[in-house]
Amino acid sequence: MTASLHVALSAGDIARFGPDPAAAFAANLQAVRTRIAAACARCGRATDDVRLLPVTKTVPAHVLKLAYQAGISDFGENKLQEARDKQAELSDLPIRWSIIGHLQTNKVKYLVRLATEFHALDSIRLAEELNRRLDALDRNLDVFVQVNTSGEASKYGLHPDDLIAFAKRLPDYPRLRPRGLMTLAVFSGDTERVRSCFRLLRTLREEAMEVHSGLSSLSMGMSGDYEIAIEEGADVVRVGQAIFGPRPTGAELYWPGAAPA
Ligand SMILES: *Cc1c(COP(=O)(O)O)cnc(C)c1O
């Protein structure tokens, strides 16, 4: 493919992603896959059991053309506006868009047009609105129910005690295809605390599946903790920085090098 020749990289892109982002992403992807395979081997799981969902948030659309070139065609985004802008720019590529972050009800109309999967279902109101909008488009959507397993007020998701009642209501929304549960572990260097979040989600799955058999997959684990998540039963890991490099935050986004060349 020669598509890379048409992607003009700014000085900021090169500072962030290196002079050959496609090669860097491909190498990082390979390294992550190797670690996934090792984690699977440690706990007697088949490598194919774990799906890697690359998280592309903050990576600019033109750079994502190079990610596609590196063999990445599943893009996980947590902000709908950002996903919409990128999708518009990349509409000629066969990308599967997954929305993995909290969604406001007023954004549902955009989500149903672009996403194939939603990992952050966390209220009945949202389920209702998704179902209504999907019905109008005659579409279905794969969904994961987000659970707050860390007890942190800053995290979205259902309280674990509310999951079963929620799962019982899912059949009221036939356009939603429940696929599993999703969580974010506590952000901590204490791996036992991280592990206990993942373990809780796995325990909750046992109960949830008795109510709704579709809730069978666990979407858990990100760059810092996906190997622990796999050991605790993750079926989908959502990995951004380990593939695309560290994300600039706040003012770093506007460092001088980021200006167009
Ligand atoms: C950003 C994000 C991830 C990936 O985080 P990394 O540290 O980039 O791997 C996973 N899940 C959600 C919900 C996210 O917003």
From TrEMBL:
Protein name, entry field: Pyridoxal phosphate homeostasis protein
Domain Alanine racemase N-terminal span(s) in chain numbering: 28-248
UniProt family annotation: Belongs to the pyridoxal phosphate-binding protein YggS/PROSC family.
N6-(pyridoxal phosphate)lysine modification, residue list: K57
InterPro entries noted in UniProt: Ala_racemase_N, PLP-binding_barrel, PyrdxlP_homeostasis
The protein's role, per its UniProt record: Pyridoxal 5'-phosphate (PLP)-binding protein, which is involved in PLP homeostasis.
Keywords: Pyridoxal phosphate
Source domain of life: Bacteria
Organism in which the protein naturally occurs: Hoeflea olei
Name of a matching Pfam family: Ala_racemase_N
Cofactor: pyridoxal 5'-phosphate
Entry keyword rRNA processing: no
HAMAP family: PLP_homeostasis
GO MF entries: pyridoxal phosphate binding
